[in-house]
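Example 572.
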Amino acid sequence: MQNSDVARFFEELADLLEVDGANPFRIRAYRKAVRTIGSLPDSIADIINDEDRKLTDLPGIGKDLAAKIAGIVETGRLHQLDEINEKFPPGVRDMLRMSGVGPKKVAVLFNDLSVTSLDELKQAAENGRVAALKGFGEKTEQSILEQIDRVAEAGNRFHIDIAMREADAILDDLLQLESVVQAKVAGSCRRRKETVGDLDLLATSIAPAEAMDRLAEHESVDKVLARGETKQRVRLRSGIEMDLRVVADESYGAAMQYFTGSKEHNIVIRRRAQERGLKVNEYGVFRGEELIAGQTEEDVYAAVDLPWIPPELREDRGEIPLAEQDQLPTLVELQDIRGDLHMHTTATDGRNSIEEMVEAAKARGLKYIAITDHSKRVTMANGLDAERLREHWRAIDEVRGRISDIDVMCGIECDILEDGRMDLDDEVLSEADWVVAVLHYGLKQPREQIQKRLLNAIRCPYVTAIGHPSGRIVLKRPGADVGYKDVFKAAADFGVMMEINAHPSRLDLDDVHAAAARDQNIPIVISTDAHSTAGFDVMRYGVNQARRAGLEKKDVANTRTFKQFCKMLRTA
Ligand code: DGT
Ligand code: CA
Ligand code: CA
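Predicted structure in complex with 2'-deoxyguanosine-5'-triphosphate:
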């Protein structure tokens, strides 16, 4: 169990307690615990297992909280959360997922309007009953109406990092069984989509019942929903549902191909099979009754005259013609990444010092990094003005003088203000090695204004990259209305790079726009936006997103050596 998983328990508990009108001090204590746990550089589980350390040494963690944390790590449950969950209908948790609607507002909707589901909320809002509530108004009602469908949809989906972690833990466990020969995840998780609806596991085994028993007993399984001879569906404690299918060895490749999808990709494969007088399904490729392929995916694709296609590309977005002409890209890989160009330190809202970040980056094999703390507009994160920034750069300079074998750039994540100006003036920006310009505020502005801001930033001669261009938060907040075509044109003209922010809740550029940027020959940087040393771990999700965009090593600037990378920077 990861720290963020533990933190989520307390976050949910605090939210529901607040809806319940519980003692504010208690709620505040849980929220503090969320922040403490979420920002710990070390794993909670490690601290528990370390005889020399105690959870109660952490700030804001008393005896009671420590016991609850230990319980979560041990059992995957928090009794108080189970209890309060019983008290509210699922609609309350759905409402909590809307942005701009915190627990206090949800309490009013639940208590005063007796709204218990998103459907009921929609009705109430459409009848103007939400706007009439104290503290709501027309604007909030409108925002609720705009969000309802997305929240209803998102309710059943999960971030890719959670999905992969859950799948991997269970696969590792299943593979412990001697009777299980192969086991892998298929579906959207294997395609590395940014969100996953449910997990589809495939295994080959001589004893299917044993595999299903093992899954049923797994600590992260909450409930077995259905079980047949070779198929089982379970719900995990995280809420994700999972199918396990145990298939025959001779059908493993065909099942993998079928259940990896996407559905759209499979439709084309099936049509190709028909054109060749064949039938393809999850058991194999058949000519009449005769099984002609199915043990490996390669065999299945070969039967329809195609090379094997990487799962990340299987969306029927042009991969099949490319495969037909033997022109599939050689996708970028995690090992190709040499640099990371977006991260924070204690100077603003990061948890680790410059030195700790540099050492951690080096330990992970990175050859160069840019330290990019926030600019002053982000007051919440203690953003830097010109004077503090220069001081910060001096500190970076001091550290890079001491630590060898890694190049460190003095950077800044500079806000593009609502009116289109840069948050810091040219004079100080001109002294930076690397400037990531970003939108944080005013994301709901009309398209023209968003456009003006992005184009202004690109024209600023010291801006080297645009970070998380849309500002979206996956499953939570849509991004700004960006006119990508013009933005990419300007970026290409001025030599500004585009970021794929690797954090699983951003993944911004998304796959489609990353491909469009690449088509304009814009160098892409994949960066972690690490706020702690553990934050470097998310690089793989950014690489996955780049792979879904069909990017090769050469398309990603931070696969280059530092020297080559510097040559790609615009010259002001
Ligand atoms: P998800 O779970 O919504 O994130 O997306 P997937 O792609 O994992 O979809 P899921 O779990 O419904 O099904 C897994 C795969 O099984 C899907 O990608 C393709 C295959 N599949 C499911 N239903 C159909 C179908 O009706 N026709 C075809 N050709 N394939 C299907
Ligand atoms: Ca699925
Ligand atoms: Ca499924």
